[in-house]
Design a protein that fits this description.
The structure holds three protein chains of three kinds. Chain A has two domains: 5-47 and 148-210 and 312-384, FAD/NAD(P)-binding domain; 88-141 and 211-307, 2-Layer Sandwich (D-Amino Acid Oxidase, Chain A, domain 2). Chain A is 30% helix and 29% strand. Chain A has eleven helices and 19 strands. Chain A has helices spanning 14-25, 42-45, 57-73, 95-110, 120-126, 148-161, 201-204, 235-238, 277-290, 336-352, 377-384; strands at residues 5-10, 30-34, 49-50, 88-92, 116-119, 136-140, 144-145, 165-168, 172-176, 179-182, 187-195, 211-222, 230-233, 241-243, 246-254, 259-268, 298-309, 316-320, 323-330. In chain B, 51% of the residues are buried. In chain B, the strands form two sheets. In chain B, strands 2-1-7-5-6 form a five-stranded mixed sheet. In chain B, strands 3-4 form a two-stranded antiparallel ribbon. Chain B starts with 15 loop residues before the first strand and ends with a helix. Chain B has a single domain, classed as 2Fe-2S iron-sulphur cluster binding domain, sarcosine oxidase, alpha subunit, N-terminal domain (Ubiquitin-like (UB roll)). By secondary structure, chain B is α+β, with helices and mostly antiparallel strands. Classes of the chains: A alpha+beta, B alpha+beta, C alpha/beta. Strand 17 (298-309) of chain A pairs antiparallel with strand 22 of chain C, so a sheet runs across the interface.
Chain lengths: 387, 97, 446
């Protein structure tokens, strides 16, 4: 008996969409299933910041590769995706953070990412709304901004043009051993199944080393030109602005609409989508400490979303050792929008049996199953929670 | 209650004079800014695709009547009463050459 | 600013005023929050003429010992427990900081808004709601000599037409989408409500020179003047002509304003934020107007579109109940069935003709905040799907206008309310809830 599909991708968020597109491009017969429609989960809740990050060499490799893929795709993205090469400004508050700017520049440069160091004067000229007295910033011009649900829809659209199918409005209750079972009792079979359910991946595979990490975002009415780049503080790298175990950081994005998207917060142990008013207030005060006039903007909406966090801050991409039919594409924490494209590339290369563009090893789920299986994943997280 | 240029306003203790896009408008006390903008004959805002818009609901729900009042943008003119000397700017006027 | 109340009333329309008066009479420390500069709600909006009942109730309300926050709106709920909670409110004056309002009992009297349906040209300046144009006129817009078409559905059409005529407007036509047969049960219900019947007859008398066309609706609003329209075009595009439809016939009418609204939909954002149980879009209450959320009452239009009398009665019941006078509240509630019969007849009379779904063309704007066209919405599956992929409902009205339309057009249920339930300054969300014990309110020495 032949399986009707080579691949079933569970999850039509941006990661699932990128996996489906890459698999379809390899000539694999591909099906995508998601009850929440395209880009309805964390993809809709995220910021849409295409950013190179260097917390680890593996993170740098994945984000850099993804950023290049986004750059290559940029020209063909429809206007609805709102792709804008805004660049990131890593804002340094003081001389100590300027040292981090210079360190970062060396690392980025070694990875082939062009950057520019801004002194206090150039930073003030680039972003006049920032408070006076900041030390400078690192500008990463190749970073970009986009609207994630539309980007996911575009990737799904491309996958379908390549022959993939999309099955909406069916909740998946089980996935593995070549079978995907739906809520209505029906099931589908495939040679390989990709679990791309973000933080929801654990509902299908409870033993995954993934924890939900809730975040808040606020979007304002339209204020074109209020800020020009994605603005991120460097400070949170060295000191978390902790509120009862949770942390906030200054992270503000200009949308193509002229709206201003304000983040960010991180908290473990919350399953509820409700707003944490204390944390939201702290997050906004943090933003105000960098952009003194931000309080005068009008809020249209506030929402929360759940990042899929892993203990080592790297995603789970590749085969699940316990089930040869199952692959994972989850655990991207706050970088799923950026790293979706390289994730898709890795997943498709694995299934098609071709050599990936970047080494797959650092992201393999097997890394958490090496040695003793009894190793407490909770213990792994305890360390990570203090980042 | 007529639209008048600031140069030929009659003096009348019982009325309020405010400016809408630089044109003086004389209104009675209790008049809403939305009504004053309508009297001035200008749309309140330009929509995101460039259409002129004017008040719809009159009760603070639809946000079509948003104008800048004394430099503060996005004020609902239908829920705001006119005050002497108020400076009202419509987005339509801002986008005019 | 922190304020502490026994009973906090949201809305100063008839239901809110009656609730506040009843609670204050019972010795409660009462606060009333209302978005409008003056009390009275939409039906007794500021500006003459007011009926006697309106003047009397507003007078009583203004004399009642209550803290009135006029020009304030609730943006969020910071805390909610059976023994009380905290709402955050923002003032329409941007320089005034947000306030935290502590309460033991909360009465929602948030009223209703008009339902708008998209049709070609409905976004033109001078196309407004029925209550919308009425509010503009009460707010000072001169209407004398202006040609007005009043259209849509519901009792507001006749009431507003009568008011506009009194102000000197030339009301060209009143177009009611319902058929005469559909309105018949309402006529019967009116026979049992002599006051309403008298009022309706007075409105019809005042509008006697204007054709009242049933089963009639606007097909389009046009910026182009008709051949015989020689009035000053002005410098801005605005409404000049309305195309009307009745009995398979269509014709153009020259006019200066089109007042068009399709009855009312309740304002339930705060009720849903507080988790109150809903049914068919309305807040579910018991005989004492208690919602499913302990400590929260609801009165007036959010429980059913029943008009002023229902609102006044429900408000009073809620105010008494919140003040602990359950017996008095229950005794009053025996008057509700008669009023509820009217509410049901009204709902039947205002049921929308399915053909109104065909008014919007592919390029007709449905979401006015984000300029989303009808054609972009057809392939979407829900309000959320439409929001994420077309921006429909993403703008500052937070879907209040397009949500009622897409519910009728596509059957999409509104998304759960999220804070802020009204666009709010970022600074208004920057403070944690101020400390304060709602269980031990300050004694007011007013």
């Amino acid at each position: 008996m032949t399986d009707p599909y080579d691949v079933i991708v569970v999850g039509a968020g941006i990661v699932g969409a990128a996996c489906a597109r890459a698999c379809a491009a390899q000539g694999l017969t591909t099906l995508v299933v998601d009850a929440a429609g395209v880009g309805g989960g964390a993809t809709a809740a995220g910021m849409g910041h295409i950013v190179v990050m260097d917390d680890s060499p593996a993170q740098l490799a994945l984000t850099r590769r993804s950023q290049q893929l986004w750059g290559a795709l940029a020209a063909e993205l429809p206007s609805k995706v709102e792709f804008e090469p805004r660049g990131t400004l890593w804002v340094a508050a003081d001389e100590e953070e300027m040292q981090e700017v210079r360190r970062k520049q060396v690392v980025y440069s070694a990875a082939g990412v062009r950057t520019e160091v801004l002194d206090a004067h150039s930073l003030a000229a680039a972003e006049p709304q920032l408070r006076p007295g900041l030390a400078g910033a690192l500008l990463v011009p190749s970073d970009a901004v986009l609207y994630p649900p539309a980007a996911a829809a575009y990737l799904i659209h491309q996958a379908m043009d390549l022959g993939a199918r999309m099955l909406p409005s069916q909740r998946v209750v089980a996935a593995g051993r070549g079978q995907v079972r739906m809520e209505d009792g029906s099931s589908l079979s495939a040679s390989r199944i990709v679990n791309a359910c973000g933080a929801g991946a654990i509902s299908l595979l409870p033993e995954l080393p993934i924890r939900k990490r809730r975040g808040h975002l606020l979007i304002t009415d339209r204020y074109p030109g209020f800020v020009h780049h994605q603005l991120v503080e460097l400070g949170y790298l060295k000191s978390a602005h902790s509120v009862a175990g949770a942390s906030v950081a200054f992270n503000v994005q200009p949308r193509q609409t002229g709206q201003v998207l304000i983040g960010s917060s991180r908290e473990f142990g919350e399953e509820d989508a409700a707003i944490n008013h204390t944390l939201l207030a702290a997050m906004l005060r943090r933003a105000q400490s960098y952009l003194p006039r931000i309080g005068a903007l009008k809020t249209i909406r506030v929402w929360t979303g759940f990042r899929a966090a892993t203990p080592d801050k790297l995603p789970l991409i590749g085969p699940w050792p316990d089930d040869p039919s199952l692959l994972l594409a989850t655990g991207h924490e706050g970088l799923g929008i950026t790293t979706s494209l390289a994730t898709g590339e890795l997943v498709a290369a694995e299934i098609a049996g071709v050599k990936p563009e970047i080494p797959a090893q650092p992201y393999l789920p097997a890394r958490f199953l090496d040695g003793s299986r009894a190793a407490s994943q909770q213990g792994l997280f305890e360390e990570a929670a203090h980042d | 209650m007529t639209e008048t240029r600031s140069t030929d306003l009659p003096s009348d203790g019982n009325s309020i004079v405010l400016s809408v896009d630089g044109v003086s408008v004389r209104v009675s006390p209790g008049c809403t800014v939305a009504a004053a903008v309508l009297m001035a004959g200008t749309p309140t805002r330009t929509s995101v695709s460039g259409e002129p818009r004017a008040p719809l609901c009159g009760m603070g729900i639809c946000f079509e009547c948003r104008v800048s009042i004394d430099g503060v943008p996005y004020q609902r003119s239908c829920q705001t009463l006119c005050l002497p000397g108020m400076k009202v700017t419509t987005t339509g006027a801002q986008l005019l050459p | 600013m922190t304020q502490i109340f026994d009973t906090l009333v949201i809305g100063a329309g008839p239901a809110g005023m009656a609730a506040a008066i009843a609670a204050a009479e019972s010795g409660q420390r009462v606060g009333v929050v209302d978005d409008n500069p003056a009390p009275g709600g939409q039906v007794w909006r500021h500006g003459t003429p007011l009926p006697n009942a309106g003047r009397r109730w507003k007078g009583q309300f203004e004399a009642a010992p209550a803290v009135r926050l006029a020009g304030w709106r609730v943006i969020d709920c910071l805390r909610l427990a059976p023994d009380g909670g905290v709402l955050r409110a923002e003032c329409n004056t941007p320089s005034v900081p947000a306030a935290d309002l502590h309460f033991r009992h909360l009465i929602l009297a948030t009223g209703a808004r008009e339902r708008f349906l998209p049709f070609p040209g409905w976004t033109l300046p001078n196309v407004m709601g029925v209550g919308g144009l009425d509010a503009m006129v009460r707010g000072g817009l001169p209407i004398a000599g202006k040609r007005v078409v009043v259209a849509g559905t519901g009792p507001l059409l006749l009431a507003v037409a009568a008011h506009l005529i009194k102000r000197g407007a030339q009301v060209v036509a009143i177009c009611e989408q319902a058929s005469l047969a559909q309105m018949a049960p309402l006529g019967l219900a009116l026979l049992r409500q002599p006051g309403k019947l008298r009022q309706g007859a007075a409105y019809r008398w005042a509008t006697r020179k204007t054709p009242f066309l049933t089963h009639c609706w606007p097909l389009a609003a046009l910026a182009e003047p008709g051949a015989d329209d020689h009035r000053d075009p002005g410098t801005q595009p605005r409404l000049r002509t309305v195309t009307l439809h009745r009995n398979e016939r269509q014709w153009n009418v020259a006019c200066d304003y089109l007042a068009c609204g399709f009855h009312l939909v309740p304002n339930t954002e705060l009720a849903t934020l507080l988790g109150c149980q809903m049914q068919d879009g309305f807040v579910v209450t018991d005989q004492q107007m208690r919602t499913s959320t302990p400590g929260v009452w609801c009165a007036g239009e959010p429980t059913g579109i029943g008009g002023v009398d229902a609102s006044l009665l429900e408000g009073r019941i809620a105010g008494l109940s919140a003040a602990g006078k359950s017996e008095a509240a229950l005794s009053l509630s025996q008057r509700r069935p008669a009023i509820q019969a009217f509410t049901q007849a009204l709902e039947h009379a205002c049921r929308l003709n399915p053909r109104l779904r065909d008014l919007a063309a592919e390029e007709t704007t449905v979401c006015r905040c984000e300029d989303v066209h009808m054609g972009a919405l057809r392939e979407r599956s829900s309000a959320r799907d439409a929001r994420l992929h077309t921006r429909c409902g993403m703008g500052p009205c937070q879907g209040r206008i397009c949500g009622a339309a897409t519910e009728f057009l596509f059957g999409w249920l509104p998304d759960p309310a999220r804070p802020p339930i009204f666009p709010a300054l970022v600074s208004s969300l920057m403070e944690e809830a101020a400390a304060g014990s709602p269980a031990q309110p300050e004694i007011d020495s007013r």
